[in-house]
Amino acid sequence: MNKEELKAADIENLLWELRDDNQRDNLMRFFKTGIGQYGEGDCFLGLKVPQTRAIVKQVRLLVDFEEIERLLYSRWHEVRLCALLLLVEEMKVCMPKKKDDESTLKAKERRREEIVRFYLRHARQANNWDLVDLSCEFVLGAYLRLSGKEDYDILYRLSQSDNLWEQRIAIVSTLEFIRHGIFLPAINVSEKLIDHPHDLIHKAIGWMLREIGKRDKDVLLSFLEKNYDRMPRTSLRYAIERFPESERQYWLKRPKC
Q1: What is the pLDDT of residues 30-46, one digit of tens each?
Q2: 36's torsion region: left (phi>0), alpha (psi -120 to 50) or beta?
Q3: pLDDT of amino acid 191
């Protein structure tokens, strides 16, 4: 079978065969699909992430962008996750290797750009926090780090979006930089989003700050000193989670100006 033969419907059928009604009900509660909640109306098959990953591993070399796009617009949460994980796999194939010659490196660079353009064009289909978190770091984050862009305009633009999921993509994508000891993108995006009203952004900011603190506590402390008065309580709790208890209590009880 080649890429032209495997269709989105075939992949959706593979996922459908693994459906679990009991697990589906649990997931719908966990991902807040009730009226007025952030995942309102989302539909689940009831798969666990490793099950979806197993399907991705099975079909990853057989799916083209057109079929991935169809998967992204499925009503089923796990089908959309499958599409996003397929893009992650596409990006992995395009990562540079020491043995690559100049021609191969340029071809991979072009392919990475194609993948990211596609991802950004359909970013709002990553419409729950797990869909964002399992894809953006490895697609957009990896692309930006490898491209060597210094202004990170894409992240800043996404942070100013009117869409919650694009805003979460902006902050969580910076984890790729953090893992490589580059903290400025996360610091800057956190400051742009620090007044955001939604708890999912507060948690993401705190998560990124905690990851920075694991690598360079002084950078985290500098951020806290500068931004403490503006920080949502959830962000602060996440950020200082690994501090010694006495230090945690200092920050938790510190009065705001």
Answers
A1: 899 999 999 999 999 99
A2: left
A3: 97
DSSP state of 231: -
Range 214-219, long-range pairs (CB < 8 A, 24+ positions): 214/242, 215/178, 215/181, 215/183, 216/181, 216/183, 219/183, 219/187
**Per-residue DSSP letter, 34:** S
Query: What span, in angstroms and rounded, lies between the C-alpha atoms of 121 and 23?
Result: 31
pLDDT of residue 151: 57
- The rounded distance, in Å, linking the Cα atoms of 142 and 115 is 11
Burial, 40: exposed, middle or buried (Cβ in 10 Å; 0-12, 13-18, 19+)?
exposed
What is residue 255's DSSP assignment? P
SS3 at position 43: strand
In terms of Cα–Cα distance, which of 72, 76, 20 is closest to 51?
20
> Are the C-beta atoms of residues 87 and 143 closer than 8 Å to each other?
no
**Tokens (6 digits) for 213:** 């603190």
| pTM listed for this prediction | 0.94
CA–CA gap between residue 43 and residue 75 (Å, rounded): 6
Cα–Cα distance measured from residue 127 to residue 73, given in angstroms and rounded to the nearest whole number: 11
**DSSP secondary-structure letter at 47?**
-
Decide if 55 contacts 15 (C-beta within 8 A).
yes
Residues contacting 213, CB < 8 A, separation 6+: 219, 220, 221, 239, 240, 242, 243
